Amino acid sequence: MDVDTFRRLSDFDNVLVVDDKGMIIFYDMADLNVLMELGIRPEEFMGKSVTSFYKNITNENSTLMNVLRTGKPLCNIKQEMITKTGEVIETINSTYPIAENGKIIGAVEFSKRFFSKDAIQYLDKYSSHKIFRRNNTVYTVDDIITVNPKMESIKDKLGRIARTTSNVLIVGETGTGKELIAQAIHNLSDRFGKPFISLNCSAVPASLWESTLFGTNKGSFTGSEDMPGLFEQADGGTLFLDEINSLDMNLQVKLLKAIEEKTIRRLGGKKNIRLDIRVISATNEVPDILLAEKRLREDLFYRIGVVQIDLPNLMERKEDIEVLVNHYLNFYNNTMNVFIDGVQEEVFQCFKSYPWPGNIRELKNAVETAYNHVQSSKITLDDIPGRIRDYTEAPMADPHVDSLKDAVQQYEKEIIVRQLKNTNGKIAESARQLGISKQLLKYKMEKHKLR
Q: Are 343 and 381 in contact (CB under 8 A)?
């Protein structure tokens, strides 16, 4: 093999050697996920016919079998192979005969997988949004899977929101996809080339919060080093502060100052550091309640909530359950050593009647659980978590109430209506007798459409 040939072959990722009958005797693959797509383990690959793994590869069209038959090399040949599961693998192959004493005893093939425009979707099996991962994100707007009108409207607005530098507040229950929305905004914006830095505020002790956000200078306290905080790390990009409602009031004041002035000073530092960041915050509680109960400063709320996105919970977008389940089937078929081609209708009915307190995160967990129990090609009721399966079997006290959450909401509405009637509609008096603030009562009246 001459130097030029060797240089060309160095561009290929995979090497496969077969004997004179086309049986695999050696392979070296850059990515063993290819074997997962074929539905086999590495040890099962050896000794098999090279044409046995694909629906469309035969002795007549296989590059390796052609070289064995003719004894002539084939260079830079495009080959399209369809796996047993119907997925398309496209490669560029250079294949050479192996001869001994003038007889062909085998062939060696150097190949490189590539992705055509039509097959670019298969890239996510290796590294979801590989380019974007350089900025600490894994999601883009395409990961918002929905047919729900409200979610489609939110998805449509993200592009316009991403064009500005305004701070954003995302409101939604746990598991509704708040960080997905934040990352989608970042990757739609001109900041996508800069870092996306995420912090769950509830996970940081109050004593470490300032040093975590603003950084430290060496000597500011025992053992301290020069260390940039998350604000500095996000310079030029986006800082995502999840569960911002968990911060105490003193820390909220310091956060407000940093966000307003876009300037921070490290602990122990002597100079201010100016930053170019966009702050996206999230809360799993309704801001009106946080404000009414004085757990969120009004001035901070106005600063972080220039744009507010209210995410519906999964029960408010039931039409998405089937769409999301099918999406997760595709995802887990490509990441687990199990292939599922569907879900029994009883499972979908069960999913649609369950209240999903953990929202989309819990739904994804339920599908993953099923993959660990499934014994056939379809997910059955026996495969899903017991709390979900058993929920449909529990008798409902009121046939008009779908869940415990709905029952509580209905009871709350009835109490408010009765109290307002007793006070002739006086909100302040009703709030006093109910033991809540006037602002909170107004919020609940709007929620129950009583105003």
A: no
User: Which residues are CB-neighbours of 163 under 8 A, at least 6 positions away?
Assistant: 189
The DSSP-derived string for 326-346 is HHHHHHHHHHSS----EE-HH
Residue at token pair 């007549």: 60
Q: Is the pLDDT of residue 381 over 90?
A: yes
Kindly state the helix (H) or strand (E) to which residue 308 belongs, with its residue range.
strand 307-310
CA distance 201 to 251: 11
Structure tokens at 1: 């093999």
Whose CA is closest to 311, among 168, 200, 438, 198? 168
From residue 225, how far is each of 20, 47, 164, 381 by CA, in Å? 65, 58, 36, 55
In 37-183, where do the E strands start and end? 74-82, 88-100, 103-114, 168-171
| Amino acid at the residue 301 | F
3-state secondary structure 111-165: EEEECCCCCHHHHHHCCCCCCHHHHCCCCCHHHCCCCCHHHHHHHHHHHHHHHCC
How far is CA 206 from each of CA 240, 301, 401, rounded to the nearest angstrom? 18, 20, 42
Cα-atom radius of gyration of the chain, to the nearest Å? 29
Count of C-beta atoms within a 10 Å radius of residue 82: 13
β-pairing verdict for 168-171 and 307-310: parallel
Q: What is the pTM of this model?
A: 0.65
CA–CA separation, 74 and 78 (whole Å): 10
Q: Please check whether residue 266 is in contact with residue 166, taking contact to mean a CB–CB distance below 8 angstroms.
A: no
Helices vs. strands in the chain: H and E counts, helices first: 18, 16
Mean pLDDT of the region 341-349: 93
pLDDT in tens, 285-298: 989 889 988 999 99
